[in-house]
């Protein structure tokens, strides 16, 4: 029997490759007798590995084992391992580096199950115009196309997403001259910083999830001509585009900045031999020819690192889409954990495009107690510089941070420009001292935020967003009033809404949908959800 826990979104980050030979094992039964199996096994996974859960369930059913899944982002996985959170029996992230950064000795025996490179997907007509069809493309070709506006692309966050971090370190390596391994000396070079900042300054949208970026691209197909994402995600996008008769994307592999997600599965050692043997058997099953063939059908590469895999599945690996399964990929060698952490901090504080973000926080009567505590804890993670640094949520020197507290009216509006530690701590102190008031109007603070954004000179230099949090239902106002305010001011802002407690999901989902944003369910863990939302701009 198989039981699933509620899935949460998660952001993981690919920064290393485990070399695993697969596809060469005989067809055997890897499942030990039921009497030798544990009663249950729990998995901590990332979004990249979710499509493979049915194969795990298939194996577990045959073994008579109950399996449960929980999803977490890359930062959460790393922090959990650092804190000694070993409640799971197995961990299946998108890359081994997060486990290395976590430094937990109980996490052992990682085995890569499948792989996918992080590449640039471009509408075929654009790739043809740029002369990239069938050609070798380097970052020195991609950068000017981005700077000139010929590429209008979506990316994922380098500090909150697996694919985003992978691309970032690949491009740093390319702009550094493709060294044997990236070092701090490369991160400190002014010419490298200038190129990478120029690249990200031309990015208008950054998302915390590779899947969401893919879905957003499809839903806003006419607004963009390219995205940086996994090869597997682009294949999935092309299947959708082909079914609706739209122009497909073409795969561009930046040869000097290529990175790969290797999706290793780990055993967490609790001294339980039955669980240990079950997970070892599962790893072998997933690496068997039968399972690897199914994995390949879903658009993943299998086999040894380099992955020059011959595939007859043209539906998944179409040459017309630029996907070359016979090409041997040569990814960069990822740097040390110390350089990884410094690089991510540098991205968050210096190299990414500036952000103007408004936090609309509900302090109505229903927030009394646990709701108020969680909101204040979540904002502490963002406004306390030390806490923000731990979670790669640092506010940058050119960022604009707006906090609007509300009940049935706007209670307070506070603004901090830049990242002066004292100003941020003072703002945090104001939030921590805020008190509970009366009714609820979730639309008024959003209109207030839009009005403030309108007053900012050169707003287009920033990625702009609103984060709306509430545990109730609005007593007044409407989405139509918010849309009218956007139309009146010319400020189009995505409103990422977070509901928890007894929140009216329908209202929050509507405002998110109408503003091309996303609704997040924070009912189980509001603080974790706040961190997740911070990857979307």
Give the CA-CA distance, first to last residue: 40 Å
Helix content: 25-40%
Which geometry do the CA atoms define? globular
Radius of gyration: 23 Å
Q: Return residue spans where pLDDT drops below 50 for at least 5 consecutive residues.
A: 1-28
Q: What do we call the CATH homologous superfamily of the domain at 354-533?
A: von Willebrand factor, type A domain
CATH fold group of the domain at 354-533: Rossmann fold
Q: How large a portion of the residues is in β-strands, by DSSP E?
A: 15-25%
For the record, the CATH class of the domain at 354-533 is: Alpha Beta
Helical run tally: 20
Mean pLDDT: 88
Largest sheet: 6 strands, mixed
CATH architectural designation of the domain at 354-533: 3-Layer(aba) Sandwich
Strand pairing plus helix content: what structural class?
alpha/beta
The overall strand count is 17
InterPro entries: VWF_A, vWFA_dom_sf
Pfam family, one: VWA
Protein name: von Willebrand factor A
Domain VWFA: 356-537
